[in-house]
Amino acid sequence: MTAAVSTFFATDEFDADTFDPLAHGFRHYGAFGFENFMGPFYVREADEGFELLVKVEDRHTNALDAAHGGFMLAVADIFLSATCFLHLKGKQHFVTVNLAHEFFGPAPRGSWVRGHGRLRKEGKSLMFPECEFFIGDELIGLARCVMKKLKMATPTDPDA
């Protein structure tokens, strides 16, 4: 996938401790329930999809002082779901059918995990998003999933 993504995060100007996503074109992604517990999350449009952010906090880490794999799987599901939600403009419910995540490197405590999500394919009832995960310009993971569209009332916009 590796589309054009932000290079700012890999420059000497970037300081993870003082970085303010809102000052760089991101908006708060007003998630629900479990997502609120895991976040906060931030999103902005990007080439061929969306960029999403979350900061690795103490509560997300393992004994190696890096993001726990379970946290990263939850982040993958949230980022992939956000990609579908934003693509559909919040007009349809869906659920995760299958999720696969490849880990290439750690996400240290205090770092910003940046995901670049895009929809690879969309059918009548299924969607196939993917998301690359970066720390700076280093690719640390790749997640893909299958989402099933549901026939339900339109969901509430998480920013409402």
Task: Give the biggest sheet.
Answer: 7 strands, antiparallel
Can you say what the CATH homologous superfamily is?
Hotdog Thioesterase
Share of β-strand residues: 35-45%
The coarse silhouette is globular
The arrangement of helices and strands along the chain is EHEEHEEEE
- Give the strand order, joined by hyphens, for the main sheet: 1-2-3-5-6-7-4
- Mean of pLDDT: 83
Structural class: alpha+beta
User: Which range best describes the helical content: under 10%, 10-25%, 25-40%, 40-55%, 55-70% or over 70%?
Assistant: 10-25%
How many strands?
A: 7
**Number of helical stretches of at least 4 residues:** 2
- Number of structural domains: 1
What would a concise description of this structure say?
This protein has 160 residues and is α+β, with helices and mostly antiparallel strands. Helix content is 16%, strand content 37%.
Structure description:
This protein is of the alpha+beta class and 160 residues long. The protein has one domain: Roll (Thiol Ester Dehydrase, Chain A), CATH 3.10.129.10. The chain contains two helices and seven strands. The chain has helices spanning 33-38, 69-87, and strands at residues 27-29, 41-46, 49-55, 94-103, 112-122, 126-135, 138-149. It has a seven-stranded antiparallel beta sheet. The longest helix is centred in the middle third of the chain and has 19 residues, at 69-87. It is globular. Mean pLDDT is 83; it is low at 1-5.
